From TrEMBL:
<dbReference type="GO" id="GO:0032968">
    <property type="term" value="P:positive regulation of transcription elongation by RNA polymerase II"/>
</dbReference>
<dbReference type="InterPro" id="IPR031336">
    <property type="entry name" value="CDC73_C"/>
</dbReference>
<comment type="similarity">
    <text>Belongs to the CDC73 family.</text>
</comment>
<dbReference type="InterPro" id="IPR038103">
    <property type="entry name" value="CDC73_C_sf"/>
</dbReference>
<keyword id="KW-0539">Nucleus</keyword>
<feature type="region of interest" description="Disordered">
    <location>
        <begin position="46"/>
        <end position="65"/>
    </location>
</feature>
<dbReference type="Pfam" id="PF05179">
    <property type="entry name" value="CDC73_C"/>
</dbReference>
<dbReference type="GO" id="GO:0016593">
    <property type="term" value="C:Cdc73/Paf1 complex"/>
</dbReference>
<dbReference type="GO" id="GO:0000993">
    <property type="term" value="F:RNA polymerase II complex binding"/>
</dbReference>
<feature type="domain" description="Cell division control protein 73 C-terminal">
    <location>
        <begin position="90"/>
        <end position="195"/>
    </location>
</feature>
<keyword id="KW-0804">Transcription</keyword>
<protein>
    <recommendedName>
        <fullName>Cell division control protein 73 C-terminal domain-containing protein</fullName>
    </recommendedName>
</protein>
<dbReference type="GO" id="GO:0006368">
    <property type="term" value="P:transcription elongation by RNA polymerase II"/>
</dbReference>
<dbReference type="InterPro" id="IPR007852">
    <property type="entry name" value="Cdc73/Parafibromin"/>
</dbReference>
Length: 199
């Protein structure tokens, strides 16, 4: 069994609180135990070596020691994650703020709700000078585990998110550019993508 597949499964079920980093081992409830140093499919750009499973809990600090991200830990510990979809829990999807990207705050609703791609510049022209929306709400009718339609908030300004809001981020559209992550409370790419955000 692939440890990242197990991690994704626990995240999807909302069981991240059952994952225990215990020295040399990572315990997934009573189901699985993996060595903390087991290599994953994610590799470091600098060294080219795979990140170990333990990178899901900590990232290197400036001192070289591994320290957990307090913001990411708070997001994972948030009890809102235990709420079922549609029960007052409104998930957040982040998109890039750059207008030249394929998916933006302007066209994300058409893309995710209706499965139709409309170029952002067409949507901007259709708005005829209206201000850029701060948040777009979309409805998904068929979401696994939900009893009905689920509303999602889509935002493109991570700096406007409060600490509690980061616990609601369920997906991120990324460019792969460093500037996109500058207003995020996480220390690096490993922290961002291994702390219960998107998979």
């Amino acid at each position: 069994m692939d440890p990242l597949a197990v991690l994704r499964d626990y995240a999807a079920r909302g069981d991240l609180d059952k994952i225990i980093f215990n020295g040399d081992d990572v315990l997934f409830g009573d189901d699985y135990t993996f060595p903390a140093n087991v290599p994953t499919a994610f590799t470091s750009k600098q060294s080219g070596r795979p990140y170990p499973l333990s990178a899901a809990d900590a990232v290197p600090s400036a001192t070289g020691r591994h320290e957990p991200s307090a913001t990411a830990a708070a997001a994972l510990a948030n009890p809102k994650l235990d709420k079922s979809l549609g029960d007052g829990f409104v998930p957040i999807i982040l998109v890039p703020s750059a207008s030249q990207t394929l998916i933006t705050i302007y066209n994300v609703k058409d893309f995710l709700e209706d499965f139709v791609f409309v170029p952002s510049d067409e949507k901007m022209r259709a708005m005829k000078g209206s201000p850029k929306p701060e948040c777009v709400t979309l409805q998904k009718k068929h979401v696994r585990g939900a009893g009905g339609p689920v509303a999602f908030e889509v935002r493109d300004k991570p700096a406007s998110l409060k600490a509690d809001d980061w616990a609601r981020v369920v997906a991120v559209f990324v460019l792969g550019k460093e500037w996109q992550f500058k207003d995020w409370p996480f220390k690096g790419h490993v922290d961002i993508f291994n702390k219960g955000l998107p998979f």
